Recover the amino acids of this structure.
């Protein structure tokens, strides 16, 4: 199963709106076939592994990180390929919560005489597809909030300067996060202050869709985030945003979404639903403080990643999340338990919601 997990990891961030899955075919103690799901519409991992094994699949064992599907989608059911190949035993890591699967694949195989074992290395297999589980069960993307902050929790100086809070190792890890995301979201204030590109600048990396939350379409069409890097950029505005500004952005190849909101802000719950409809499974949010604050207040987040630098900006620095605050400690927003590790000279604190 660890070999299958290694195969599955090759597809992380590349298979949406499908899960990332890996599979291996084993005879005795020897792996005779390997496969991973490369992208939606292409063969699933089990089919790839069976093809790689060829005739050696008959009577062999198949290890898959996720329960094999039993329905016709853009590709035929994996259970059919497993049965046609004559596999004797199937070992599954994660159960599939998709209502179209949800135990059907296991039942089909057992009904046809194939031995099935479930839950092998379940925790590691579940971790690979934690975002997809959120997407398939809730109808919204898995939302990761990522911020680089000083040790006293500041996102930028009093003048808005934030380059660079963290060191090179942390910034490299952020580019890896971007390469695994389907979309990256920032507010208009971040675009105006930093003029970021928000691309994944690593060899062979894939950049995400760049999404700007800009109710009045105030950001310049010349902003670097709107550069022509696949898969493109999207500006999310209120219905009353000026048509002339929308037209200027569209001439740059920027897609415009108009969504309702309140108090001059686009409704983030509606935006998350729309992104899910677009097939966005993994959403990375990189600021600013207002966007972080809104998502935290809504409870519309799944993972918080704080890259903390050994620096202090003091009381005039800008906090990383705009929350109204409480008068007593009992009013504090409870996040959950942190895990921590060092990244170069900085620390990375991570909270996963239950």
């Amino acid at each position: 199963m660890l070999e299958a997990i290694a195969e599955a990891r090759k597809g992380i961030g590349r298979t949406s709106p499908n899960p990332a899955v890996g599979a291996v075919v084993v005879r005795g103690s020897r792996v005779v076939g390997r496969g991973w799901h490369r992208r939606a519409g292409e063969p699933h991992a089990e089919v790839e592994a069976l093809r790689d094994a060829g005739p050696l699949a008959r009577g062999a064992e198949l290890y898959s990180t996720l329960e094999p599907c039993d329905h016709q989608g853009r590709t035929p059911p994996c259970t059919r390929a497993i049965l046609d190949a004559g596999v004797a035993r199937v070992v599954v890591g994660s159960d599939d919560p998709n209502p179209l699967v949800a135990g059907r694949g296991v039942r089909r195989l057992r009904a046809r005489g194939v031995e099935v074992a479930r839950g092998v290395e379940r925790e590691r297999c579940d971790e690979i597809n934690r975002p997809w589980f959120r997407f398939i069960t809730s109808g919204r993307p898995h939302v990761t909030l990522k911020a680089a902050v000083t040790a006293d929790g500041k996102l930028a100086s009093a003048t808005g300067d934030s380059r660079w809070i963290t060191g090179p190792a942390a910034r490299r890890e952020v580019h890896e996060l971007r390469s695994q995301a389907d979309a990256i979201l920032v507010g208009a204030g971040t675009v105006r202050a930093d003029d970021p590109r928000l691309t994944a600048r690593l060899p062979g990396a894939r950049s995400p869709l760049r999404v700007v939350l800009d109710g009045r379409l105030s950001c310049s069409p010349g902003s670097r985030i709107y550069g022509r890097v696949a898969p493109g950029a999207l500006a999310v505005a209120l219905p009353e945003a000026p048509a002339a500004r929308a037209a200027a952005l569209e001439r740059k190849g920027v897609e415009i979404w108009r969504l309702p909101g309140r108090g001059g802000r686009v409704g983030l719950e509606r935006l998350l639903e729309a992104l899910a409809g677009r097939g966005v499974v993994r959403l990375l949010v990189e600021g600013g403080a207002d966007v972080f604050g809104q998502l935290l207040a809504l409870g519309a987040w799944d993972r918080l990643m704080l890259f903390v630098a050994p620096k202090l900006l003091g009381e005039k620095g800008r906090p990383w999340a705009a929350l109204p605050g409480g008068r007593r400690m009992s009013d504090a927003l409870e996040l959950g338990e942190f895990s921590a590790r060092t990244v170069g000279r900085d620390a990375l604190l991570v909270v996963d919601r239950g």
